[in-house]
Amino acid sequence: MVELEDVPELIDPVMVAAFEGWNDAGDAASTAVAHMDDTWGGKVFAELDAEDYYDFQVNRPTVWMDGGVRRITWPTTRLSVIRVTEPKTRDLVLVRGIEPSMRWRSFCQELLHLAHELGVEMVVILGALLGDTPHTRPVPVSGVTSDPDVARSLELEESRYEGPTGIVGVLQEACAQAGIPVATFWAAVPHYVAQPPNPKATLALLNKLEDLLDIRVPLGDLPEDARAWQLGVDQLAAEDSEVAEYVQQLEEAKDTVDLPEASGEAIAREFERYLRRRDNQPPKTGD
Questions:
Q1: How many domains would you assign to the chain?
Q2: CATH number for the domain including 174?
Q3: Dihedral sign of CA atoms 223, 228, 229, 233 in order
Q4: Mean pLDDT of the chain
Q5: Domain that includes residue 153, residue range
Q6: In which residue ranges of the chain is pLDDT below 50?
Q7: What does the pLDDT look like over 185-210, one tens digit per residue?
Q8: CA distance 208 to 206
Q9: What are the pLDDT digits (tens) for 224-270?
Q10: Which of 56, 113, 134, 279 has the fewest CB atoms in 10 Å of its CB?
Q11: How far apart are CA 223 and CA 39, in angstroms?
């Protein structure tokens, strides 16, 4: 573990976490955190000891060349800090890693200890799951929490899920028990195109995070990548009549479910979001 002396005092810090593996269909969630880290030049200040949490026969280290010297990168979880300045200044503590193989409770306690030391005000966990959703429609993103107060204040669903869970579910419960406000956002990835990457789902998670934290994430090539991804899946579906028919069935089911609010609350929410994003755009040259 790297000491925290080199980390400056943070401004309204929020921890945003994502983990590769069972909780990360299409690598959508881990790619969202990686995008923010790369875009804002995140500075890694800590990493968890790989030997404490990972089975190296499951998650193997990789060998690479660095100026003619062989190096080994061990699978682990790393934490970095970025400073967001638009539309207001706040710091994000990004947690990027792989779902641990063992000692999940100790893993969560170590993350919560760091959150406490850094003065983190809230934890947001990103995940992605496979679902019966068509690739041609907006990616559904559901926000849940196990904290009734957070559910009311952020207008999220209170989690009622029962069944097998991953590190996302365990960390959410650990945060709630520690009294740290926590929310989890799940993007639904079409199960018939589960292979990564899925830039459309990554984009949907980033948009949801923007709305929640009132920040603006530079999206770079992601919107174009999302459009290209959808066109590519369109072409694949067109080449297989059974897949095309199945996608049509999913579209009809989705549209039927959405129809009652299509002309009401959904449009109002999208219009409010459009106005917020337009107001946050920098003025064009000559304005």
A1: 1
A2: 3.40.50.10900
A3: positive
A4: 87
A5: 14-221
A6: 1-2, 261-263, 267, 283-287
A7: 999 999 999 999 999 999 999 999 99
A8: 5
A9: 999 999 999 999 888 988 889 999 999 888 887 665 544 455 545 55
A10: 279
A11: 15
pTM: 0.85
Closest CA to 189 of 128, 243, 255: 128
| CB atoms closer than 10 angstroms to residue 69 | 7
The tokens of 199 are what? 């830039």
Identify whether the C-beta of residue 14 lies closer than 8 Å to the C-beta of residue 122: yes
Residue with the two structure tokens 């893993």: 107
CA distances from 130 to 70, 104, 135, 192 (A): 38, 23, 12, 9
